[in-house]
Structure prediction request, 186 residues.
Amino acid sequence: MPEITEKLEWTIRVPVFRNPIILKQLGIAIGIPFGVLIFFLILTKAFYALGLIIVLFLFTYLLIRIVWGGKYDVGFELNRTGIRNYTLKKQSNRNRIINALAFVSGLLSGKPAVAGAGILAQSRQDVLIRWSNIRKVRFYPGNQTVMIKAGFAENIAVFCTPSNYSEVEAFIRYSLIGKDILFTSS
Prediction:
């Protein structure tokens, strides 16, 4: 087992459309509700609405490719307190602008859900999950990723580099010794 240090820090650029963990989460968050909607649109022969949804997906894909380069720039810090996940400065500045636009457009259009989405997205730019809150850990060594599940809305994916994955896994296991945690591997 690798030697455990006091603190681990690293940054990583994760490809949004090529990472299986991100694609799975997008599939659950977007695929299920839109899948149901698309099913009903096909049943009711509302092909115009179906076309609009396809165009919306295409524009969203292009926006992510243009604004963020199709990448998620993120940093991690593991220490005695817990796991910190933060968006890197350049991407964080872009996110702040997009989130502010969502908030303002939601207010101006009378759509509180859009305004709330902007606020929620901005609040997740820097997240700390304390070791004491963690309930489940799933290791994905093939993808160099660790999924951390804690309380409600306290879930993060810890994206590692090929060179630091084993050290990160050892640090997490060591930090959770003696706690009632469900560990699984994929």
About this structure: The chain has two domains: 1-16+72-96+127-186, 17-69. The CA atoms of residues 136 and 182 lie 5 Å apart. The longest strand covers residues 8-15.
